[in-house]
Write a structure and sequence with these properties.
The protein is mainly alpha-helical. It folds into three domains: about 200 residues, no CATH class; about 45 residues, no CATH class; about 160 residues, no CATH class.
Length: about 450
Amino acid sequence: MFEFERITLLDYLLTPFVVGLIYFFGKRFRDRYYPFGHPYRRFFLPALTFKMIGAIVICLIYVYYYNGGDTINYFYHARVINSSFDESPVKWFNLLLAIPNRYDPEYFEYTSLMEWYGISGAYTVSQIAAVTSLLTLNTFIPAALLFSVLSFTGVWALFRTFAEQFPKLIEPIATATLFIPSVALWGSGIFKDTLCMFSLGWLCYATIQFFVYGNRSFRNITQILIHTLILATIKIYIIICIVPALSGWVLFKNTSRIKNKGLSNLVTVAALFLSIGVFGFLFTQLEDILGKYSLDNIQKTSKVTREWISYSSKKDDGSTYDLGDLDYSIFGVISKVPQAINVTFFRPYLWEAKKLIVFLSAIESFALLLLTIKTLSVIGVKRFLQTVTTNYTVQFTLIFSLIFAFSVGISSFNFGALSRYKIPCIPFFLLTLILVFYAHAQPGQRLAKSLRL
C-alpha cells in the first residue's frame, strides 16, 4: 500500500531553503532586467513574496482546515508517479506522460492508485506537481512554492502587458494584477487555477506583442501556441471566454490606425462579423474538444452541477447560493446573466458569510462593489459607456471579465468553489475600473487609497 503524508517535518525544514533560493534567483533577475530607477523594480520582489505567502497559506488551509481537497489529491497523484522512480526512471517517465494503459499489468500497481490517471486537466496538474515535488524531495509546501513562482511569471507578464500601454498608471495596474488577495491565495498552490493564471498572463502578453506591436519573434509564436494549448487542456472555457475578447482587442487596435475613418469603420465591422462567424462555427463544430462546455451541453452541465452541489452541501451552511428558478433553455440561461455576473463580482455579501473563508471572500467582494460604485458615481454612467465604446483596451478587459463572470457564476453554486474559479476575471474587471476612472479623473483623484490606487 502506498504511504502518503501530506505535510512532514521535512516540509518545514526545506521550505525556508526553497524560499531563500527563490529570492536569490528572483533578486538576480530583478537586478538584471529592472535596475535602480526602473519603474517596475519596486513591485517585483513584493509581488513574488505575495505569491509565495499565498502558496504557503493555502497549503496549511487545505491540510489543517479542510483536511483534504483538490490540491491534496493533485499532490497525492504526483507522489504516486514519483514513487515509481526508485523502481525505474523509465517507468517514472512513462507514468509522467501517461503512456501506459491504465490496466497495463506492469504499471497497474501505480495506475490503480490514481483516480485521475490520464484524465486531461486534472492529470496535467499532477504531472507538473510530480516534477516540482521531485525537485523538492517530494514535499508538499516546497512543491507548491514552485507552482507559485510559475504563476508569478504569468501575472507579471499580465502586469507588463498593461503597464507598457499606460505608463502613468503603473501603481494601480500593479495592484490589480499583482496584489489581489484571492488571486494570490487560490492562484498560487497546486491547482488548475494556478496554471491558468500562468498561461492567461503569458497568452495576453505574447498576443499583444505579436499582433499589436509587431514583434513577430518565434518566441511570441511559441508562447501563443503553448499557452493556448495549456488553457485548452486544463480549462477549455477560459479559451472560449478569452478568444473573442482578445481577438476584438487586436482587431480594433489595428483598424484604429487606418486614417480614413469610413474605411476603418468598414474594415472593423467586416472583420468583427467574420470573427464572430468563425468563432461560432468552431464553437458548434468542435463538440468533442469542448465536451461539457459545448453549446449542446453547457445548460446540462450547469443543471447537473447545481443539483449535485445542492445535494452534497445541505450541511455546508454558508457556502451555497442559487440564482432562483432557472429555465435551462438558452433563453432561460441568458436571462440569468445579470445575477450570474453579480454573484461572481459582488457576492457573497457580508451577511451571507457564515464561515471564515467565505467571510474573507465577502470582504474582497464588498471592496470591489465599493470601487465599482465609486467609479460610476464619480465618472457617471454616460462617460463610462463612452469610454467603453472608444477605448479598445477597456473593451477587451470588460468583455472578458463579463463573459467569464457569467460562465462561472451560472455554473458554480458554491461560494467556496466560486472564489477559486473567478480569479482570472477579477484583475481584468479591476483594470476596467482603473482605466475608466483615470481616463476622466481630476488631478489628485484616486480610486482607492487603501488599495494603493
